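Catalogue entry: protein
Contents: sequence, fold tokens
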Amino acid sequence: MKLVPIKIFGRDTNIKHFNSDKDVLIPEKYVEKDSELRGVWVSTVANIDVPKMELDENGNIKAGEVEKYKEYLDSIIATLKEYHLNTAVFQVRPVNDALYESKMNPWSSVLTGKEGLNPGFDVFGYFMEKAVKNGISVHAWINPYRAGRVNIVEKGMTRDEFLSTLGENNFARLHPECTILTKDNKILLDPANEVVREFVSDSIIEVATKYPVKAVHIDDYFYPYEDIADPDEEEKMKKAGFTKVSDFRRNNVDLMIELIHNKLSKLDHKVEFGISPFGIYRTKRDNYSKEDLETLKGQEASWEYGSNNHKGCLTNYAGLYADIYKWMEKGWIDYVAPQDYFDMENSKINDKGEEVCLVKYADLVDWWSWAAKKTKCKLYIGQAMYRMGGDNFWKNPYEISNQLKYNQNFDNVSGTIFFTYRDMVRSDNEVLKEARDILKTMWTKDIQDK
């Protein structure tokens, strides 16, 4: 397999690895595999990838809306077949709710605009049935903690007032003592609460037993990006026997991941458990100064075996309190699909007008391949189809195809998941359209993920 360097888009110089003179190399030709995962996330939160049914003046679903919705779900399957994709990661529980017939969670408001309103058919069940008939594997994607997307202060509401607007059987409404606020005043199920962990894990088991899903899937939302505002956290931490908030938070998430793993392992059939984390676990310690390493943040975000990227980058371990590597090492998850949503040449201009490199796609794939081999965990790469046509090097229509070629340097990269479905059908972005056309020349046959 002949390897060649890649030119920086719009320049006559080669892309290098982070802080290095080493060229990033890709195969000259893409070689189609006989087996791999080719997937796309179907994002239902905020109706990113799904429509909302129209209601009449009485709040009832208008005639014909159910049929239109089914036709839309059929079109998703058709698009997957068109691009020779074999997997849909379908978001079934976006905000403590459900797009399936659930005894534990109310019908999602993304379906009708009203939480708890029956849409007239089992949305996920219908999609699941059509997917199976068309040879499409389905991973049921859930968000574990999110219970509200609105800033309740901006809405002029108290927590209890907001919770009263949710479906009558919404867990957060029934158990307000199990909720906390983020710093953006959004409702979150408390990761420190044992009752929450049991509820979330049981919700996952409900989906895993009700439908023939290949896997259940959690993305990057653990402790929120904006952090939490829990006045009782220190008391909870001390009661649990911890002296550092960061260790307490990571342990809370560890307990949930282990619990989900244990419950899934007791099923009478195999259902995989996958995590799609933010792309950086921890940063290589050599990239920090001595002064940085004297701070708690520097100590926790850095690791001797971390990835090669800028020290200022967010990390799962210190920023989201998600110890992904531990879960891989313990065997609690079957696969990891890191969100490597960065271009091959990722940089920004600082306040001094200098170009500063932050993190590069290739260096993260290098690291995740190493980590997956070390822990014997299956690896897929999450890739940012949604960024095509955007700023900087995303204007290059070959960005995604170059990334797919780079993945072929690693025998343990077992597939790709694109974010997000709407970018497989949008027609208002010429670069994106060209990137999809290129993809069709690379993926020309139907294959399965084994």
Summary: The CA atoms of residues 5 and 25 lie 5 Å apart. The two ends are 24 Å apart (CA to CA). The chain has one domain: 3-145+190-442.
